[in-house]
Amino acid sequence: MYLPKRFTARDQAAVEAFVDRAGAADLVMFDGTKPVASLIPVIWDRPRGARDGPGAGGHGHGRLLGHLALANPQWRSAGPQTVALAIVHGPQAYISPSWYPSKVRPGTVVPTWNYVSVHITGPLTIHRDLEWIRDVVSRLTAGTKPAGRHPGGSATRRVTSSTASCVRSSGSSWRSRRWRPRKS
Q1: Which of 112, 116, 123, 131 has its CA 20 to 30 A from that of 67?
Q2: The dihedral of CA 154, 156, 160, 163: what is its sign?
Q3: Angle at alpha carbon of residue 28, lines to 75 and 88, rounded to 5°
Q4: Quick check: 66 and 41 in contact, CB under 8 A?
Q5: pTM of the full structure
Q6: Contact 181/100 with Cβ under 8 angstroms?
Q7: What ranges do the domains of the chain cover?
């Protein structure tokens, strides 16, 4: 991702909160002939206050947990050395140069696109263990459903034909551009 220094987030807590609120990411991999991507639900699994140890990932950032359906052929592309990219999207908007009084001069009018995005890269691990899958799917759905009884039964009964993925984050990039009118 093109990331000018002035737009790089320096507040790790803000990046973590953004990913937590989004709850989904585009999982991008290479299948041997072309890039493949799926929008998947995600949880950024970070041990509270820990920088190392189980769940912390190679650089202390934790790991991104997600879910791909077994019917989705993308999971079959993952091998032992697969590195994946997860793209978490936020708000975006076109910014007209006419909003900047300083850009009224001819020849200096350039539109822009403001957006918030976090890119997380790391090794991809595919899990087929039913208990692991139940745990991840339960965690993914716990924050999205209101308490009480739901039609169709529990989510854990339906995951027997699914697989889950884990992208251990080795770092993240953050771009946040906010339009602020300049004083003339």
Answers
A1: 116
A2: positive
A3: 120
A4: yes
A5: 0.72
A6: yes
A7: 5-89+116-145+154-176
What 3 state SS string does the chain have? CCCCHHHECCCHHHHHHHHHHHCEEEEEEECCCCEEEEEEEEEEECCCCCCCCCCCCCCCCCEEEEEEECCCHHHHHCCCCCEEEEEEEEEEEEECHHHCHHHCCCCCCCCEEEEEEEEEEEEEEEECCHHHHHHHHHHHHHCCCCCCCCCCCCHHHHHHHEEEEEEECCEEEEEECCCCCCCC
Which residue bears the tokens 């339009």?
179
Measured distance CA(134)–CA(118) in Å, rounded: 27
- Find the angle CA(55)-CA(5)-CA(169) to the nearest 5 degrees: 15
Task: State the amino acid at position 64 in one-letter form.
Answer: L
CATH of 5-89+116-145+154-176, one of 3.40.50.2300, 2.30.110.10, 3.90.380.10, 3.80.30.20: 2.30.110.10
Tokens coding 14: 């803000």
